[in-house]
Design brief:
The protein is mainly α. Helices cover 81% and strands 0% of the residues. It is built from four helices and no strands. It is elongated, with a radius of gyration of 15 Å.
Length: 63
């Protein structure tokens, strides 16, 4: 089901956005766990550092 179809069916935009963000986080974590030393794993680790779910732990370290 596409995002457009989810919104047309009555799902809230916040729920669709939260599901998309959570799904991308899980995908990056799985890539890092499956192949941590490969180029793909290293790139996924770098992207995890930029992900919104990872921001709170980095903000705590800076403060």
């Amino acid at each position: 089901m596409s995002i457009y179809e989810c919104l047309r069916s009555g799902a809230s935009a916040a729920l669709v956005l939260a599901s998309t963000v959570a799904g991308s986080y899980v995908l990056l974590v799985l890539i890092v766990l499956i192949s941590p030393t490969s180029t793909r794993g290293k790139a996924a680790r770098d992207l995890l550092g930029l992900h919104p779910f990872s921001k709170s732990s980095q903000d705590d370290q800076d403060g």
